[in-house]
Design goal:
The protein is an alpha/beta fold. The protein is about 35% helix and about 20% strand. It is built from ten helices and eleven strands. The strands form two sheets. Strands 1, 4, 5, 6, 7, 8, 9, 10 and 11 form a nine-stranded mixed β-sheet that branches. A hairpin with a 2-residue loop joins β2 and β3. α3 crosses α7.
Length: about 250
């Protein structure tokens, strides 16, 4: 059984156009993500809809597959990439690595790879313990409720479960909460199936694609990791990273 890593990357990001090609430590961000993936996988491919990204990947000797520009999610882009690659590459599982996480930990990639290769796992993702109230109550941070067997029960932008009759300041003391870390792994056939699913009401309410999969009866197994990765979502994130890098160099 073989597992490949796919890195969906589009140029026309609403919040940060051209994000995959921004320079970090002298390299385009997409290259940093690719190099981290190569520490955990034998085969890595960037899936993009832009010739500028194709050229950048070719420049550093990486593998890239050109996909359509109409996709609404990285899942759809990965599904098309799987269709295009399956005629010439043999693989059973796919790991979807976000193209805006240049410092993704290879050990996390190995952990999710091992999880999806377990018999019966349809979809796998990473979660990390939440340790601060700011993160718990931040609607931009996606929380995950886990079943006793480690499956994901629900994803939400709200702090769930709600602890009735307990002050919010004490919630973290009384119950473990988990943050969703945006890495996914799928059986190849399952990826092709979920890319064709219709949206669900819960997904539309929370604006979280993974609720579509749960709503249609798919199981999502989780792997607990010690920490979340620092992604680059906006120009401000990149500026903060550069400031931190410069500060570290001065120390």
């Amino acid at each position: 059984m073989k597992t490949i890593a796919l890195i969906p990357a589009r140029y026309a990001s609403t919040r940060f156009p051209g994000k995959p090609l921004v320079q970090i430590n002298g390299k385009p961000m997409i290259r940093l993500v690719y190099e981290q993936c190569m520490k955990a996988f034998d085969q890595v491919f960037v899936a993009t809809d832009d010739e500028r990204i194709v050229a950048a990947v070719h420049d550093f000797g990486g593998n890239v597959v050109m996909t359509s520009s109409h996709h609404q999610s990285g899942t759809e882009r990965c599904a098309e990439a799987v269709q295009l690659l399956s005629d010439h590459h043999d693989f059973d599982f796919v790991v979807n690595v976000q193209g805006d996480e240049p410092f993704v930990d290879p050990q996390q990639l190995i952990a999710i790879k091992q999880c999806i290769e377990n018999a019966g796992t349809q979809i796998a993702t990473l979660v990390a313990p939440i340790e601060s109230a700011n993160m718990l109550f931040d609607p931009n941070k996606v929380k995950v409720v886990l079943a006793e067997n480690g499956d994901a029960l629900y994803f939400s932008r709200q702090a769930i479960p709600c602890q009735r009759d307990v002050p919010e300041a004490d919630w973290l003391k009384n119950h473990p909460y988990f943050l969703h870390v945006g890495l996914y792994a799928y059986q190849k056939e399952v990826l092709m199936q979920i890319a064709r699913l219709a949206p669900t009401h819960a997904e539309q309410a929370e604006k979280l694609e993974q609720l579509r999969w749960l709503g249609h009866g798919y199981r999502i197994n989780t792997v607990i990791t010690a920490h979340a990765n620092a992604g680059i979502d906006t120009p401000e994130d990149l500026e903060n990273l550069n400031l931190q890098t410069n500060a570290n160099r001065k120390e």
